[in-house]
Design goal:
Length: 131
Amino acid sequence: MIKTLKFFVKEAGLRIKYMTSRDCIFCKLINDGGWASEPILETDSIVAVSDINPVADVHILIIPKNHIESVLTIGEKDSRDIIEMFSVAQKIVEEKKLEAFRLAFNAGRFQHVPHLHMHLLAGGKVQWSKL
């Protein structure tokens, strides 16, 4: 119970921070660096990093460098970035020799950062309520 409460307090703080920020946190990190750890894989258009709040043994964010707000705003101009996101996911799965994995996008009230990103999840049980 206390663990759950602590998670929700932390989550609420993160959401307030991201929702009230005038600039996109992912765009800032892409442009200025400052990731919590070194990128796992980076191409000209995509960066993959470990999630700072993992919900599975393997929890990697795959983020386009161009700002795309959400799955609801994807347009034809974004097609190369979307394809590249899946290509990066494939490379990571092969490099890490993952036998089973999930790829997930959050949208609407489930999307904490207003910059499209894909979650690559593997290993153990996924804590979906924390995603």
